[in-house]
Input
Amino acid sequence: MNARRPSRKQSRSALLGLAFDAKDGQKRITRGPNFLLAGGSQETHGLMQETAVKINEHLDRKGKQLSDVSPHEFREIVEEIHG
Output
């Protein structure tokens, strides 16, 4: 019998955006490579989309994945985007 240690799984991270201000009855869902956005008014959902895309662009420029950044660095990225 071969007793193997379970291989370490690579850490993965994803953004989850939820908004609850939609009053028009629309169900908005957007999926990306590392994010899922649900709900919100057209304006709020659009802001979540813009933020998720800009975060991914920032990470791509740095050659990083979302799982590579610390919570502090993530906050800095968001502050840079929304200044």
Q: What stands out?
A: The beta strands are 15-19, 29-32, 35-39.
